[in-house]
Amino acid sequence: MLSMPAEFEQFHWMVDMVQNVDMGLVVLDKDFTIQVWNGFMTHHSGKQAGDVIGKTLFEVFPEIPEHWFRLKAKPVYDLGCRSFITWQQRPYLFKCRNVRPITQQADFMYQNITLNPMRNPTGQVKSLFLSIEDATSEALASLMVKENNR
């Protein structure tokens, strides 16, 4: 069993990883209220955690079609399984700036998103977390191949 200082240190490691991982992490409760907003999301969206936490996803991002997104989240909450949004289905969920505008000619970041269930200690799914991957390089390469094949 870990001692209290070791558990405390591991907790801080986890917080540091969540904030600094090269992927967006957003936690939403069943009302779609934002609970966690990591550093990747702050950097790429320009929205500070303090400005979004406690607000619904649809308040902060009114451009997200609410009915469509609720349908994407339904199997996560009802069945406890993952749901996916790829850049081919919808180029992005969160309109984020492209952080490599010189090497990649895109006005925004293409995204692959996974909606993941978060279970409480009794096994119920009360929240979900979004993992947001920058798929701009992949998208631009694929679009270039399609364009060249025309």
UniProtKB/TrEMBL annotation:
<dbReference type="InterPro" id="IPR013767">
    <property type="entry name" value="PAS_fold"/>
</dbReference>
<dbReference type="GO" id="GO:0006355">
    <property type="term" value="P:regulation of DNA-templated transcription"/>
</dbReference>
<dbReference type="Pfam" id="PF00989">
    <property type="entry name" value="PAS"/>
</dbReference>
<protein>
    <submittedName>
        <fullName>PAS fold protein</fullName>
    </submittedName>
</protein>
<dbReference type="InterPro" id="IPR035965">
    <property type="entry name" value="PAS-like_dom_sf"/>
</dbReference>
<feature type="domain" description="PAS fold">
    <location>
        <begin position="15"/>
        <end position="134"/>
    </location>
</feature>
